[in-house]
Amino acid sequence: MNIQTILKSFVGKAIISDEQASLIADYEEDKPFSLHWELRSILYLGIVLFGSGIGVIIYENIDTIGHQVIIALIAALTAWCFFYTYKHALPYSNLEVKNPKKLTDYVLLLGCTTFLILEGYSQFQYNAFGTRYGVAVLIPTIIFFFCAYRFDHKGVLSMAITGLASWLGLTVAPLSILSENDFTEDRLLGTAVILGIMLSIAGWASEKQNIKKHFSFTYIFLGGNLAVLAAMTGIFSDKAQFIYIVAGIALSVFFVQRARFAQSLLFLLMGVVYGYIIITYLIFSNIESDDASFTFGTFYFMFTSVGVVYFLLHFKKFLGIKK
């Protein structure tokens, strides 16, 4: 249904007048089309392709160029990126800083990427850090946290959180938490829950203290997912089950509360889905009889399905979003 059909329907029902319909039609026809997200996607893709191109050039010309020259070029590019970002950055503020020079954000992201390339290349070729791999991971993590706050960059903050998790032997990427982390090891499982909770607390505190409060989503999303999925793994594997049950349910409640506060459907879905999985597992794991489990399960999933439909129809009301 196009705009003309909708306007004619409104005029026919006396909702708007012919003059108003004409003004709206003219506005819709002449309004500028935003290329914001298209340009951002192209710039991000350009940074990825540029980094990949550097790798290909190094691989194909390593014998001709020489290792020292390559390292010097990457270091020079990295230094230029950080210098350019610093030169064009606005003063630091605890509030969100929107730099009118959008190129600065992408130059900073490129600088952080080339810094990782520089460090990895130096370690591979000259074993710069020896066997102190933790130091090699911790250095960029500290630098990225500093850059994220100083230059107000959410992408660099995500890189810093990923580096912190890597330093502890974890990954925080939502699609890789279960496949890339070895949760069969008790120490790593507990570390994942503690780190995820600490990141969630950091996000909550940043909003309460009004220090880069717009970073809270990144902290809570990455940390919360890591913690609750690790807790669910602990519940399913019967490892210190009570502790992980408390952690999983508490995080689910926390997600729901954050959803109501931020009017976020994503956090609401995370809290409801994670909580539903945990509660469902606990209920059925305590039913010993297969017949009783089947009978109860039939009614349980039928009524909870009705609840899901009701939830999807009324989630705006729950979040306090006006129609």
Automatic annotation (TrEMBL):
Keywords: Membrane, Transmembrane, Transmembrane helix. Pfam families: DUF2157. It comes from the Bacteria. The chain crosses the membrane at residues 41-59, 65-86, 106-124, 130-149, 156-176, 188-205, 217-236, 242-259, 266-287, 293-313. Coiled coil: none annotated. InterPro entries: DUF2157. Residues 10-155 form the DUF2157 domain. The keyword Isomerase does not apply. The keyword Signal does not apply. This is Predicted membrane protein. It comes from Dyadobacter psychrophilus.
